[in-house]
Design brief:
elongated; mainly beta; 7% helix; 8-stranded antiparallel barrel; single chain
Length: 187
């Protein structure tokens, strides 16, 4: 009796409908590479004595499509060319670089995508007067409008937490908020 019930259950399990097209793959099996280009605006902490300013970033990622959206492992870099705050210290050009490794997940519904990300990496600051490098942790939210699965225009809102003694005599905690507009291509 038990054997008959198991055989009936297995037979019903195997009677699932076939896809309409044989070349269709379920969404959870697709994966690929993504490229993100960002135009960013960052508010540099007053303790750094750096002018807030625009920057740009590029990221490359490997993604897998799961549960209605992509899960991505990414590497990237952002760059800013700004200046010191003139009323605080001597004027000087400042180069800021951010190198990151991160992971994120998104949920896509029709044309809209909502995602979150966690990034780790290093910041470097340099001017003719001072240099510093420090690790950081960044949390971000990503909102986007998609053209299918292959392209997205989006907004990233993020906050990086780090520490630095750049333009100061002692180490201090720094929070750097960033808003960025970007384009993602997935292939």
């Amino acid at each position: 009796m038990v054997t008959a019930l198991i055989l009936i259950a297995l037979a019903q399990e195997q009677e699932k409908p076939l896809p309409e097209r044989l070349d269709e793959e379920p969404a959870h099996l697709s994966s690929g590479v993504s490229i993100d280009a960002w135009a960013a605006w960052t508010g540099f902490d007053n303790d750094l004595r750096i002018e807030d300013g625009p920057g740009f970033g590029l990221e490359a990622g490997i993604f897998s499509w799961n549960h209605g959206g992509p899960v991505t492992l990414r590497v990237g870099a952002f760059a800013w060319e700004t200046e010191t705050e003139e009323d605080e210290i001597q004027p000087a050009d400042v180069r800021v670089r951010q190198y990151l490794l991160g992971v994120g997940a998104a949920f896509q519904e029709e044309l809209l995508e909502l995602g979150f990300r966690f990034d780790l990496g290093a910041f470097t600051w340099s001017s003719r007067h001072d240099r510093d490098a420090a690790g950081f942790f960044r949390f971000g939210l990503d909102f986007g409008v998609c053209a299918g699965r292959h392209a997205k225009a989006g907004l990233l809102l993020a906050a990086a937490f780090t520490h630095s003694d750049f333009n100061r005599g002692s180490e201090h905690v720094v929070v750097l908020p960033t808003a960025a507009l970007g384009l993602t291509i997935r292939f």
